[in-house]
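Hi support team,

I'm filing this because I wasn't sure whether my run with flavin mononucleotide finished correctly. The job status page said complete, but I'd like someone to confirm that the output block is well-formed before I use it downstream. Pasting the exact inputs I used:
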Amino acid sequence: MELMQAILTRRSVRKYQEKPVEREKIESCLEAARLAPSACNSQPWEFIVLDDPHTKESFCREVFGAVYAISKWASAAPVIIAAVSDKGNFVSRMGNFIRRTEFYLVDHGIACEHLILRAWDQGLGSCWIGWFNADKAARFFNLPANKKVEHLLALGYPAETPNARPRKKAEEMVHYNQYK
Ligand SMILES: Cc1cc2nc3c(=O)[nH]c(=O)nc-3n(C[C@H](O)[C@H](O)[C@H](O)COP(=O)(O)O)c2cc1C
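And here is everything the job wrote out:
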């Protein structure tokens, strides 16, 4: 699929076919993420793929409880990918401090966008999930203290074709030569 076509047609998909996702397709998505740019090339990401139904079910039971129950729809996705962050390397962390920004989160966003665009390119739907219990997710995977599950990505063959969500008009977000 041509890049702009993928960008134009991609949607967040929240209903999936039961059909399992081939490991090769998952690996290709992860390869797209691996090649993403990052501040100081620090690559502050790791991905944990949940495609075993029992493990995925136990995980979802943990992380989509209580106030996070609105995200329970994701339990039915054939694959959940947990995107794990660390705070980047020393130079990148110095950059965070001086610039007062969190470059590792920017990096994460880019890698995950690579992943979901490659998913779409292969006929797979996906949805970012920011609303889940990250502490319970870290405990589930026994993550060390410097690592965090930043967000989850649901993945699978789509069982719905969502309409495009509204976007700002170009005039509302683009400025040439001055801010007004
Ligand atoms: C960082 C991030 C977190 C998100 N978290 C959730 C979420 O917790 N639950 C959900 O249903 N959708 C979530 N979304 C999906 C957005 O709702 C969706 O991208 C937005 O409404 C635009 O729709 P589209 O992706 O179909 O273009 C998230 C998206 C991003 C980028």
